[in-house]
Amino acid sequence: MTHEGFAVWLTGLSGAGKSTLAEGLVAHLREQGARVELLDGDIVRTNLSQGLGFSRADRDTNIRRIGFVTELLTRHGVIVIVAAISPYRDAREDVKQKIPNFIEVHVDCSIEVLTARDTKGLYKRALAGDLGNFTGISDPYETPLNPSLVIHSDRESVDEALAKIWRELEARKFVR
Amino acid sequence: MTHEGFAVWLTGLSGAGKSTLAEGLVAHLREQGARVELLDGDIVRTNLSQGLGFSRADRDTNIRRIGFVTELLTRHGVIVIVAAISPYRDAREDVKQKIPNFIEVHVDCSIEVLTARDTKGLYKRALAGDLGNFTGISDPYETPLNPSLVIHSDRESVDEALAKIWRELEARKFVR
Fold first, then answer.
1. Is B86 a catalytic residue?
2. Do A73 and B68 touch (CB under 8 A)?
3. Does residue B48 or residue A39 have the better pLDDT?
4. CATH match for A6-171 among 3.40.50.300, 1.10.10.10, 3.40.920.10, 3.30.365.10
5. Contact B47 A35 (CB under 8 A)
6. Interface pTM (ipTM) of the complex?
7. Labelling A17: which of A5, A162, B17, B87 has CA 20 to 30 A away?
8. Closest chain A residue to B5 measured between Cα atoms?
9. What is the pTM of this model?
10. Which residue in chain A is spatially nearest to B62 when comparing CA positions?
11. Under a CB-based contact definition with an 8 Å cutoff, are residues B108 and B150 in contact?
């Protein structure tokens, strides 16, 4: 496939399914021969943001760095899929302004479902007060006001969600 | 022109001419329609490394971050020109290992000439003891042992230097 650079930015709480959707998208795009890069929040922290913590300022710095790299890659025709909690609206908006072909996908999932799943045991610890700065429990998540797309991962399957994102990419003519 | 991704990493003291050569290379490559990105140490510090200082650990972290971004871009076919003091051998070697098409260019200039030029007045301050961690004066510069190329900017003109780098790129078949 031929394509220009664009970014799909998946934002949402820990455990909501951002990485799963990102990996699904990347696999689908690679199959079609696209130039695609996955920037996963956790991995990026190791390479770009070691030493940063989870204060608002540090989280925003982390997001702006991911944004900087996303901007560089998309400018040169690469598709970038970002999976990062990105809890603060201002930082997300800053990034959005800088990248012409950009869709923001809010991966939404109720705290009840996240707490019930809790694959890493983090919600339990956060609810018990043992984990500070945990987004959604002991730290804010500013819900996107006008995302390109909302995925309700507590009631949509991964395949449904991927199909929905793909339709959005087609509608925007990011993929053909 | 068609090309694969590759990196030209310009290392050397402040004022040696890294940025001038980098800008010359970028201009020449852009004229030919290449996909090229300039990563200048100072600019990158703003976007990727704010908060880092000039200790050895912080400098190495900065270099590894530039290396990470260079790796991402070159992997997707972009030419990356890096102008960064990069004083420590280990960090440069780490980066070199990760990027298949890589040339290291040592932009060498004697301290005498740098001190005489001293366009930013930094050498004067460093020599007077007013500027700590200044590479070459109050902080070490580990000369590359086996660079792809050495430019002697105290006795080669910018045009000569650019021609020399270009011949190296042709010899490696990075440009055709």
1. yes
2. no
3. A39
4. 3.40.50.300
5. no
6. 0.89
7. A5
8. A76
9. 0.93
10. A48
11. yes
